[in-house]
UniProtKB/TrEMBL annotation:
InterPro entries to which the protein is assigned, alphabetical: DUF979 (IPR009323)
Zinc-finger is among the record's keywords: no
Name this polypeptide is given: DUF979 family protein
Listed Pfam families: DUF979
Species annotation: Dyella telluris
Length: 322
């Protein structure tokens, strides 16, 4: 049975490979950074098992490793390695391969979707191939492996070459590769710590009674602000819905929860366009394209975010209380 733990071990192996290659090239800070992250991925099960057994030491060591990652991150140089091929060679290869270049990338969502839809029906000798609780994530991990094999076939390159290129891109992205993990943890911390309840109490004290428009405006702006802080509208949504959406807009003013939720999320996406915390969208492209300004993508999107927010809020105000 394929379980999500196998994916974590595979990621750990790639991170340790990256650390080893950097150590050979005498890039000590990079080697230490990726080695620590690889050990965290590899040792997750042991930390959980130790917690259940009442042993807090592995968790404390993991916390020390996370702090060490934060200290090492500023020491990583932006440009890690030179290109392995000239611009003319890359252009000639792209022209030769044509649209087949998109095949490996398109295989990732396709294989993930197929596993999510049909994975529970696949079995060998009565044993399920995929563990049901993490079927989609396991399918995504399998899809990445399939895409790597397909990319090797399409580009007529060896698998070690593919791993080396992956390592080069990972070094180019640097610490920003960790932001999705950290932001997911931050959203859970906010939810568990009762931030939503605190916002509800504060909003009830400050907002004037009976002013549904102002309450809706605070909700929409709060979605943008928390998305900017956490880098993810999905992390901001439960906080704002628990604080303002459900207790005030839905229960007090009778807002339509479906319209409020969908258009509130779109307000949050405007915050995604404005924050470096959304590294996958705003920092990683700047790093891979080697833009002179690392925040150039955000600057280009700012006016679009403003226009989308204004239009979304106006339509939300017109529709949500109907």
């Amino acid at each position: 049975m394929l379980r999500i733990e196998y994916a974590y071990w595979l990621i750990a192996a790639f991170l340790l490979f990256t650390a080893w290659r950097n150590a050979r090239e005498r890039q000590g800070y990079r080697a230490a950074f990726w080695a620590l992250l690889g050990l965290l991925f590899a040792g997750g099960d042991m930390v959980l098992a130790a917690q259940k057994a009442g042993n807090a030491l592995p968790s404390q060591l993991a916390g020390v490793a996370v702090i060490a990652l934060a200290l090492l991150a500023p020491l990583l140089r932006r440009r890690a390695h030179p290109e392995t091929a000239s611009a003319s060679a890359r252009m000639a290869s792209a022209i030769r391969l044509g649209h087949t270049l998109f095949v490996p990338a398109l295989l990732i969502p396709l294989v993930t979707l197929l596993v999510a839809l049909f994975g529970e029906h696949l079995s060998v000798g009565g044993i399920a191939l995929f563990a049901k609780p993490q079927m989609t994530l396991t399918g995504l991990a399998l899809a990445c492996v399939v895409a790597l094999l397909a990319a090797s076939r399409v580009a007529q390159a060896s698998l070690p070459q593919g791993l080396s290129e992956g390592r080069r891109l990972l070094d180019a992205i640097g610490w920003a590769a960790l932001l999705p993990l950290l932001l997911a943890a931050l959203g859970e911390v906010f939810t568990q710590s009762g931030v939503g309840a605190a916002i509800a109490a504060l909003a009830s004290m400050i907002l004037p009674e009976g002013n549904a428009f102002l309450c809706l405006l605070v909700f929409a702006l709060g979605m943008v602000l928390f998305t900017v802080i956490m880098g993810n509208a999905f992390a901001a949504f439960p906080v704002m819905m628990a604080g303002i959406g459900l207790p005030l807009l839905v229960h007090r003013y009778g807002a339509n929860p479906a319209i409020l939720g969908s258009m509130g999320m779109l307000c949050g996406y405007c915050g995604t366009l404005l924050t470096p915390m959304a590294a996958d969208y705003n920092l990683v492209p700047a790093a891979l394209l080697e833009l002179r300004n690392p925040y150039g993508v955000i600057r280009a999107q700012a006016w679009s975010a403003f226009g989308i927010f204004v239009a979304t809020f106006l339509f939300m105000w017109l529709l949500v209380f109907r």
